[in-house]
Amino acid sequence: MAADSMALEMEFRVFEQHKKEWLQAHPGEFVVVAATSVAGFYPDYESALTAISFPGTDLLSFDAIRVVACPIIRRPFFSCLIGRDILQKFRLTYDGRTGEVEIRA
Predict the structure, then answer these.
(1) C-alpha distance from residue 77 to each of 62, 68, 74, 80, 104 (Å)
(2) How far is 2 from 43, CA to CA, in rounded Å?
(3) Considering the entire predicted model, what is its pTM?
(4) How many domains does the chain fold into?
(5) What average pLDDT is seen over the chain?
(6) Which residues pair with 41 in a beta bridge?
(7) Cα separations (Å) of 84 from 29, 92, 102, 103?
(8) pLDDT tens per residue across span 84-97
(9) Domain ranges, residue 98
(10) Which of 63-92 are b and which e, b meaning 16 or more Cβ less than 10 Å from the residue's Cβ?
Protein backbone atom coordinates (compact mmCIF):
# COMPACT_ATOMS: atom_id res chain seq x y z
CA MET A 1 0.00 0.00 0.00
CA ALA A 2 1.37 3.45 -0.92
CA ALA A 3 2.34 5.83 1.89
CA ASP A 4 -0.37 8.37 0.98
CA SER A 5 -3.02 5.61 0.99
CA MET A 6 -1.88 4.45 4.44
CA ALA A 7 -2.02 8.05 5.74
CA LEU A 8 -5.54 8.48 4.38
CA GLU A 9 -6.65 5.19 5.98
CA MET A 10 -5.24 6.34 9.35
CA GLU A 11 -7.03 9.71 9.08
CA PHE A 12 -10.27 7.95 8.16
CA ARG A 13 -9.98 5.70 11.24
CA VAL A 14 -9.47 8.78 13.46
CA PHE A 15 -12.53 10.38 11.85
CA GLU A 16 -14.67 7.29 12.40
CA GLN A 17 -13.55 7.03 16.04
CA HIS A 18 -14.54 10.62 16.84
CA LYS A 19 -17.43 11.23 14.41
CA LYS A 20 -20.26 11.07 16.96
CA GLU A 21 -18.39 13.34 19.40
CA TRP A 22 -17.54 15.89 16.67
CA LEU A 23 -21.08 15.93 15.27
CA GLN A 24 -22.39 16.92 18.68
CA ALA A 25 -19.66 19.46 19.49
CA HIS A 26 -19.36 20.99 15.98
CA PRO A 27 -22.70 20.63 14.16
CA GLY A 28 -22.59 21.79 10.56
CA GLU A 29 -18.81 22.27 10.55
CA PHE A 30 -16.08 20.57 8.52
CA VAL A 31 -13.17 18.89 10.30
CA VAL A 32 -9.64 18.59 8.93
CA VAL A 33 -7.73 15.56 10.24
CA ALA A 34 -3.98 15.39 9.67
CA ALA A 35 -2.36 12.10 10.66
CA THR A 36 -3.91 11.46 14.10
CA SER A 37 -4.56 15.11 15.05
CA VAL A 38 -7.38 17.54 14.39
CA ALA A 39 -6.05 20.46 12.36
CA GLY A 40 -9.26 22.40 12.94
CA PHE A 41 -13.01 22.78 12.50
CA TYR A 42 -14.27 25.12 9.78
CA PRO A 43 -17.62 26.68 8.87
CA ASP A 44 -17.49 25.69 5.20
CA TYR A 45 -15.74 23.33 2.80
CA GLU A 46 -13.63 26.03 1.15
CA SER A 47 -12.15 27.16 4.49
CA ALA A 48 -11.33 23.58 5.45
CA LEU A 49 -9.80 22.89 2.04
CA THR A 50 -7.45 25.89 2.22
CA ALA A 51 -6.26 25.39 5.82
CA ILE A 52 -2.59 24.62 6.38
CA SER A 53 -1.45 23.02 9.60
CA PHE A 54 1.65 21.39 10.98
CA PRO A 55 0.42 18.46 13.14
CA GLY A 56 2.66 17.35 15.98
CA THR A 57 4.46 20.72 16.14
CA ASP A 58 4.09 24.04 17.91
CA LEU A 59 3.86 25.89 14.59
CA LEU A 60 0.81 28.07 13.97
CA SER A 61 -1.81 26.92 11.50
CA PHE A 62 -3.29 29.19 8.85
CA ASP A 63 -6.97 29.29 8.04
CA ALA A 64 -8.67 30.37 4.84
CA ILE A 65 -5.55 31.42 2.97
CA ARG A 66 -5.60 32.43 -0.68
CA VAL A 67 -4.91 29.39 -2.83
CA VAL A 68 -3.84 29.32 -6.45
CA ALA A 69 -4.29 25.87 -7.95
CA CYS A 70 -1.53 24.22 -9.95
CA PRO A 71 -0.69 20.61 -10.80
CA ILE A 72 1.64 18.97 -8.27
CA ILE A 73 3.58 15.75 -8.79
CA ARG A 74 2.19 13.29 -6.22
CA ARG A 75 4.88 12.02 -3.87
CA PRO A 76 4.66 10.39 -0.44
CA PHE A 77 4.61 13.02 2.35
CA PHE A 78 4.23 15.84 -0.21
CA SER A 79 0.92 17.62 0.18
CA CYS A 80 1.32 21.25 -0.86
CA LEU A 81 3.62 24.04 -1.92
CA ILE A 82 4.12 26.79 0.65
CA GLY A 83 4.84 30.28 -0.66
CA ARG A 84 6.86 33.12 0.78
CA ASP A 85 3.72 34.66 2.31
CA ILE A 86 3.59 31.72 4.73
CA LEU A 87 7.34 31.10 5.01
CA GLN A 88 8.00 34.71 6.07
CA LYS A 89 6.46 33.80 9.44
CA PHE A 90 9.02 31.04 10.08
CA ARG A 91 12.70 30.22 9.98
CA LEU A 92 13.32 27.53 7.38
CA THR A 93 16.59 25.58 7.32
CA TYR A 94 17.39 23.14 4.54
CA ASP A 95 20.43 20.86 4.73
CA GLY A 96 21.23 19.95 1.15
CA ARG A 97 23.67 17.22 2.20
CA THR A 98 21.06 15.22 4.08
CA GLY A 99 17.85 16.56 2.55
CA GLU A 100 16.52 17.49 6.00
CA VAL A 101 14.18 20.44 6.39
CA GLU A 102 13.53 22.23 9.67
CA ILE A 103 10.82 24.84 10.19
CA ARG A 104 10.69 26.89 13.39
CA ALA A 105 8.38 29.62 14.63
Answers:
(1) 19, 20, 9, 9, 19
(2) 32
(3) 0.55
(4) 1
(5) 78
(6) 31
(7) 30, 11, 16, 13
(8) 777 887 888 989 99
(9) 3-104
(10) eeeeeeeeeeeeeeeeeeeeeeeeeeeeee
